[in-house]
Amino acid sequence: MSPAPSASRSTTKPKARPKKRKRAKPNPALAWARRLARYRPRLLEDTLEALEGIYGPQVWRRRLDPTSELILTILTQSTADVNAEQAFVALRSAYPSGLAEEDHIPGAGWGGAGLPRGAPPDWAAVEAAPPEELMRVVRPAGLHTQKAPRIQATLRKIREERGDYSLEFLGAMAPLTARDWLSSIPGIGKKTASVLLLFCFNHPLMPIDRHVERVSRRIGLLPPKGPLDVDHDRYLAMLAGAPERSYETHVLLIHHGREICQARNPKHELCPIRHRCRFVDPKAP
């Protein structure tokens, strides 16, 4: 008698487990803005209102053409604004362009006297200058052995990318796209790029220099420590509901850092925001 046929094995494959979706990494800038709004509501608004009460309203006005603004900002790196002014005037004298003269009205946040009326330098001549010669010209700004080659490399990059030295095209770009374009140039970070875009085109970006950083960390608008690259974006998140206030935010904070909230011996008795400042009171609301 032949054995009974064995039961056929099932050919159905087990169902594959659905892949778990990877959680998106939290956005530190957005997380900070939400935390501040929850635990210290209206901190930025109260700060701006208090500072405007002593320094007055700040109205945007273009300072220089964008290429001049960029080179002047490079000259201000790690030095006083008055020293950068001397170096920029020396550039004008050493490499005259014959172009139309510009007025430099720097506003409350500037630490120098402002540039005298004058034409921008001949940028082609600056790029082509012998490096040692250019170092001598920009020596008043300090770190001349670093800044002169950085200026020439920046001008070369702009010319190679655009065919000339004009940066006016940045005004038609989205702010973050324009910032990324500038930041792709070696030696140009978010702060320098944001300065140019804010002061030349009123793009809603927030440059964080040493004064803005100090005041912001003391008040608690920024964490006590943190990378400045993230801090730039923290401010963009905080200003997301009112991006048009970027200019006054930068100018008021930098001016306050120069006048009252100084690095040494800050004048707490004169500060209109001391009741909300964590440097004055670690438990300030």
Plain-language structure description:
The mean pLDDT is 93. The chain contains twelve helices and no strands. The chain is 48% helix and 0% strand. With 285 residues, the chain is mainly alpha-helical. The chain folds into two domains: 40-59 and 206-276, Endonuclease Iii, domain 2, CATH 1.10.1670.10; 66-201, Hypothetical protein, domain 2 (Endonuclease III, domain 1, Orthogonal Bundle). The chain has helices at 28-39, 43-55, 66-76, 81-94, 123-128, 131-137, 144-162, 175-183, 190-201, 210-219, 228-238, 246-259.
CATH architecture of the largest domain: Orthogonal Bundle
What number of domains?
2
Which fold name is given in CATH as the topology of the largest domain? Answer: Endonuclease III, domain 1
Average predicted confidence as pLDDT: 93
CATH superfamily of the largest domain: Hypothetical protein, domain 2
N/C terminus separation? 93 Å
User: How much helix is in the residues?
Assistant: 40-55%
Characterize the overall form: globular
Structural class: mainly alpha
Would you report the number of β strands?
0
CATH class of the largest domain: Mainly Alpha
- Regions with little confidence, pLDDT below 50 for 5+ residues: none
C-alpha Rg (nearest Å): 26 Å
Order of helices and strands: HHHHHHHHHHHH
Strand content: under 5%
Q: How would a textbook summarize the main sheet?
A: none
Number of helices: 12
